[in-house]
Amino acid sequence: MTSVRPLWAIEGGRVTLEGTGFPVDPGLPQVRIGPTAARLAHASPTALTVVVPADLEGGSTAVRIDELPGETAYIEIGAPLVTGVHQVDNPAFDRHGNLYVTFSGSRGQQAAVAIFMVRPDGTREPFVSDMPNPTSLAFDREGHLYVSSRFDGSVYRVEPDGRASLYAGDLGVACGLAFGPDGFLYVGDRSGSILRVEEQGRARAFAMLPASVAAFHLAFGPDDYLYVAAPTLGTTDAIYRVSPDGTVGVWSTGFGRPQGLAFDAGGHLYVTDALAGWSGIYRVRLDAPASPELVLAGGTLIGLAFDPHGGLAIATSDSVYRLAVGVRGLLPLH
User: Fold this and answer.
1) Distant-in-sequence, close-in-space partners of 26: CB < 8 Å, separation ≥ 6
2) What is the pLDDT of residues 15-25, one digit of tens each?
């Protein structure tokens, strides 16, 4: 065994072991991740692709091939943090390391709890009620949480005690939130526009993009450009880059259905990509947009968020996992 890729994963992800002379004839080898046998999705003498099993403890975990004693590699497995949620975009950390997750529900559904707060110790508490279809989350420089609703086309500001008040309305199918270096809130209307919310909640058109069948996902980079994922029904989709004056360009291509976006402190963009039951997270250097690097494999990933104290939260549609890796996010409003 010469390499394993990617080196981060959660349950349902596909990890490939590369090497020479893997014993695939007459029978297939047995691969274990931790103590658990992993199902083979592909096998050849030079590569074995396995599906990460459920119920692993998480953390640095051994990968072994029973037929090759002594051959051991290690990957970082994300541990389940919270289940029973419904994410359609990234979760969000506050400056204290509390994680905010949504129960977005089907269109028009009014869940008993719209947003939960998850403490660093994993304790989950109801935080916001009486909000239809909470969609995207973002914090401003003062630490206030903002939430879009794709149902009523509004953005709400949430106080520390969980009370929500209308911040801006008439925003179309509001999804995707990011605060820009100018301090204004940018909102994605998945019908094809990016709006900038200025004084007194007034929204102005900032940029036009192709419409999305799902949701816009926004993130500002260290270069003060806005990066946007807008998944369509096409066979491939791109990440768009929007200049400070609103000029839109195709930046990185070849993704399946790119969704949640986030920048690390080194200025690399992390892209959640999902298509046809497979998904992963890619890391893209700003100076090499044509060379995305697969860094994490998962089942049906939706988004991610960087813990301010280090590590990642990885969201599927119904669960969030914690990955203890030494990566920090780009500070908001750098």
Assistant:
1) none
2) 999 999 999 98
Q: Which amino acid is at 72?
A: T
- In angstroms, rounded to a whole number, what is the distance separating the alpha carbons of residues 252 and 104? 29
Fold of domain 80-323: Methylamine Dehydrogenase; Chain H (2.130.10)
Measured CA to CA, the distance from residue 40 to residue 30 in angstroms comes to: 8
- Stretch 135-142: mean pLDDT: 94
The Cα–Cα gap between 317 and 88 comes to 7
Do β-strands 72-77 and 8-9 pair in parallel, antiparallel, or remain unpaired? parallel
| Rounded-to-integer distance, Cα 190 and Cα 171, Å | 10
Q: Which residue reads 């949480």 in tokens?
A: 145
| Cα–Cα dist 29/48, whole Å | 9
Within this chain, domains 3-77 and 80-323 share the same CATH topology: no
Contact 87, 321 (CB under 8 A): no
pLDDT digits (tens, 9 = 90+) for 179-214: 999 999 999 999 999 999 998 889 999 999 999 998
Fold of 3-77: Immunoglobulin-like (2.60.40)
